[in-house]
Amino acid sequence: MTTTLLTEPIVLEFAVSMAEQSCVQSIKRTVNALDGVDACQIDLASQRVVVQGRVPPSSVQKALKASGRQVIVRGMGSLSDASGETVAGVCVFESHQPSKIHGIARLVQAGELCVFDLTIQHTHLQRPPKDASDWHVYVARSGDVSRGPESTGGLLRHIGQLNVDSQGYGDLFTELKDFRLQDSIGRAMVIAPALPTATMLSHQEKREALQLGPGVLAGVIARSAGAWGNAKQVCSCSGLNLWQEDRKLQQSSVL
């Protein structure tokens, strides 16, 4: 399958488990085999991998995980941002009963474009919503997800259509024009059936639209670290190191 590449190059920083120099060479071969990679820098001592190019973050992460390694996205940034003030964001889609992480979207403002990369899995996504042909991603008016999508106050912006397989795994990779990530930090992101209009919807219109099908998810867009902006090795909340915290997170995730 051909990977859709970015218009503008970005820089991606990962923490990747590695023990010796042979690991470095193996990781370099894995990354350089991907379309759109311009450069790959690996530091064994800090277990850090920095990738530059037009390759989607999820493609790099998926390839490294397929090689049997622990992989954590530590930051993203834009090479074209002359000010050096790259804005990066993340949105985690989580159900509450039971508590499970179903997906994650990563965003980075790359010049005039906002790069959007989402991976998600939910059993309800295996079947099309009632009276609708597919699932879509939207930015909502508010960040209140106390009652899931219903409390987000109406839909503000259409992001795109999810590509979903028969197992309920979906992804969406796109570049957004006329979209400033800075203005969406703190707002919710919603996965819902195709709505009857591309314009902004009122709360009542959104409630009616969301009744088209089950399994709708929501998460809040939060600011995340840019490349080289996250040097944390131990979580201050749990006291766990980077890899222990990642294993704990994986236990609550369906991805």
UniProtKB/TrEMBL annotation:
GO terms for biological process: superoxide metabolic process. Signal peptide: none annotated. InterPro entries: HMA_dom, HMA_dom_sf, SOD-like_Cu/Zn_dom_sf. Residues 9-72 form the HMA domain. CDD domains: HMA. It comes from the Eukaryota. Pfam families: HMA. GO terms for molecular function: metal ion binding. Gene3D superfamilies: 3.30.70.100, Superoxide dismutase, copper/zinc binding domain. Its cofactor is Cu(2+). Belongs to the CCS1 family. This is Superoxide dismutase 1 copper chaperone.
